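Postdoc handover notes: sequence design on the structure in folder B. Input tokens:
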């Protein structure tokens, strides 16, 4: 059976609700604090597993309380955590998220994530030509590049979510079948700012003619656009009551990978992943709102 292999980060997200951010030197009283398992690797793995795809996660945690909680949580989500290793004398990645009424601000401490280096043997063991390999940029960039190259060599479908953006992505493109930037990250790929939606679609068309890598751009409230051989297709976003946008992009990427592993076309995978991302923003927390296949099917009707 085809599976999704995710190489990426794991964090414990601490979400603190407050009316505003403190000024330098100021102390504020917040409202609430919640703890959620996060990190782009863990988020995308959970999103894929929630809709029924077999998922293996390659990641690293610290030998602390957060690491133990994260590990048990991922097992409960039915993710293969055999390749989630524990690093001694360092903390599990942590993200402090300040949740405001209409936005958020985030500080990330990578911790054990930045020690995820030796992946050759694990990827060779976990990845086959039948699989979909998904990764992001919250771990060492050389590890990302190595992982993509090994997965491509194995014949897997390779997906790169280029977030947080780094210009070294351009060196990875020969190993990437599908790249999934948001609009800002796509501007990073181009090396310039785009002025309007029409220009974005023109640049996407140019991309399709000059690159072998399939381009899918997530555009928030404007929906999702992807390239075909001669065109750009845009799927408008559905209107919902937005509670928290944290993790929407990860939900999209995880479901996209899972749908491709299940044999769906890119068009169908993008449509279903878009529905899943829309559902995810209706609840607080990156993983809390990640839907099941049944919930996506119901929403799509």
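Designed sequence:
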């Amino acid at each position: 059976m085809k599976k999704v292999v995710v190489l990426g980060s794991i964090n414990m997200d601490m979400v603190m609700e407050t009316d505003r951010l403190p000024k330098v030197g100021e102390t504020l009283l917040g409202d609430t604090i919640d703890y959620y398992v996060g990190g782009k690797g863990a988020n995308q793995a959970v999103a894929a597993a929630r809709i029924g795809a077999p998922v293996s996660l390659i990641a690293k945690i610290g030998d602390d309380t957060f690491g133990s909680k994260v590990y048990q949580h991922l097992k409960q989500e039915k993710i293969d955590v055999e390749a989630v290793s524990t690093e001694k004398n360092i903390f599990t990645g942590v993200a402090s998220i300040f949740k405001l009424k209409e936005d958020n601000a985030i500080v990330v401490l990578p911790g054990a994530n930045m020690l995820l280096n030796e992946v050759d043997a694990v990827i060779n063991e976990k990845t086959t030509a039948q699989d979909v390999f998904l990764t992001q940029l919250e771990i060492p960039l050389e590890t990302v590049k190595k992982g993509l190259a090994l997965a491509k060599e194995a014949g897997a479908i390779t997906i790169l979510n280029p977030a947080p953006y780094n210009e070294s992505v351009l060196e990875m493109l020969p190993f990437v079948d599908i790249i999934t930037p948001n609009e800002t990250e796509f501007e990073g790929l181009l090396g310039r700012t785009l002025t309007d939606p029409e220009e974005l679609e023109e640049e996407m068309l140019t991309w399709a003619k000059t690159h072998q890598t399939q381009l899918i751009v997530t555009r928030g409230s404007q929906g999702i656009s992807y390239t075909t051989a001669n065109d750009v297709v845009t799927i408008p976003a559905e209107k919902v009551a937005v509670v928290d946008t944290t993790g929407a992009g990860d939900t999209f990427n995880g479901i996209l990978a899972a749908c491709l592993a299940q044999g769906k076309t890119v068009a169908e995978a993008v449509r279903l992943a878009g529905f899943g991302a829309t559902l995810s923003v209706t609840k607080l927390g990156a993983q809390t709102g990640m839907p099941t296949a049944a919930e996506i099917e119901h929403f799509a009707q």
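Context for whoever picks this up: The domain at 41-65+79-85+114-300 is CATH 3.40.1190.20 (UDP-N-acetylmuramoyl-L-alanine:D-glutamate ligase). Don't rerun without checking with the PI first.
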